[in-house]
Amino acid sequence: MNAQCRPRRWRAVSLVLLSAAFLATAPAAPAQTFAIGAGGGLLNDEGSAESLKSFSTGAGYGFAEIALDPGILLQARYTRMKLPSSAADGPDIDVDAATLSVAYLFREDWWQAGFVAGGGGYWLGPKEPGPGQVALEQSTARFGWHGGVLTIFALGRRADLRLEAVGHLLRDDDRRKPIVLSAALAWKF
Q1: Phi-psi region of 67 (alpha: psi -120 to 50; beta: other; left: phi over 0)
Q2: Which pLDDT score is estimated for 152?
Q3: Which residues contact residue 81 at a Cβ distance below 8 angstroms, ignoring those fewer than 6 apart?
C-alpha cells in the first residue's frame, strides 16, 4: 500500500512545486507580489459546522501564490487531511489535495478580508486496516470544489497571518464535505 501512496503524494507535491517554480520564474510586474506559506487547522468531517465537537481531526497545507491585482490572489495549494471511512468499522482515509484557487479581497489599512473559491484534485487512500477493521474503500482520485472566507492580517511588509474557513466538496461516491478552520503564515517577496 505504501508503494501506491508515494506516487499519489508525489503527483500532488510535484503539482504544487511546479506551480511555485512557474510563479517564481515569471517576470514580475510592479503590482505583482509572490508569497509562500504554510498552515494548519481543525477539520470537521461531518459537513456541518453546527457543533464545535465535529472539528475532531486536523489538516495541514503549504501554498504558493501571486497577487494578480491588488485584492486578487491566485493560489496553488497542497493539503493533507484525514477523513473517516464511510464504513462503520473501516480505517481512516488519508486525503492529499492539489488545488488552485482565486481570492477576492476587500482592503483596509492593516488587514484584508474576502472570499476564496477554486477546485482541484483529491487523492483518497485508505490506511491499513487495524484489528477488527474491514477495508471496503479503494484508493481513488477525484475532482472537487472548495470555497470559503479568508482574512489576512499584515505582520509587517513581508509577512502576514491568514485565518480562513473553507468548505470542500469532494466528487466521490460518498459526497464528502469537509470544513477546515485554519491559520497560516505567509512570506511575501
Answers
A1: beta
A2: 97
A3: 43, 57, 58, 59, 60, 94, 95, 97, 178, 180
Separation CA 144–CA 5 (nearest Å): 19
The answer to whether 61 touches 50, Cβ cutoff 8 Å, is no
> Between the CA of residue 154 and those of 19, 76, 160, 162, 176, what are the distances in Å?
24, 21, 4, 9, 34
Give residue 39's pLDDT.
97
Rounded to whole angstroms, the Cα distance separating 46 from 59 reads: 14
Q: Which residue has the cell 484534485?
A: 121
Which residues of the chain are under the pLDDT cut of 50?
1
Q: Are strands 93-107 and 55-69 parallel, antiparallel or unpaired?
A: unpaired
User: What is the Cα–Cα distance from 4 to 136, expressed in whole angstroms?
Assistant: 17
Question: Which domains, and CATH codes, for the chain?
Answer: 2-188 (2.40.160.20)
How far does Cα 74 stand from its chain's mean position?
Answer: 13
Using the structure block, give the residue that is written with the C-alpha cell 477546485. 119
140-155 pLDDT, tens digit each: 899 999 999 999 999 9
Determine the residue type at 119: G
